Amino acid sequence: MRVKGPLVFNNTTLRLNAALTGGGLAYVLEDQMQEHIADGRLVRVLADWCPSFADYHLYYPSRRQPTLAFSLLVKAPRYRD
Predict the structure, then answer these.
(1) What is the pLDDT of residues 21-57, one digit of tens each?
(2) How many domains does the chain have?
(3) Looking at the domain assignment, is residue 4 inside a domain?
(4) Do the beta carbons of residue 36 and residue 44 sit within 8 Å?
(5) Residue 62: CB partners within 8 Å, gap ≥ 6?
(6) Any domain includes 19
């Protein structure tokens, strides 16, 4: 199948919107598309090749003098509802 006009996005929202409007496949995290799968608007493909993980991880190589914004980003996941 020849496809003309490739779409390339570096933004999850744009990828998801393109998939929802029939633009093709989108590689996004499952929790970001779960409601669309439940509604029947999206179908999960290649499930056997998509590894699952239990939680998110944050890696940063140095803890010396982090900015305030970075410190808040590190602390934010700890305060879930």
Answers:
(1) 998 889 888 888 899 999 999 999 888 888 777 777 7
(2) 1
(3) no
(4) no
(5) none
(6) yes
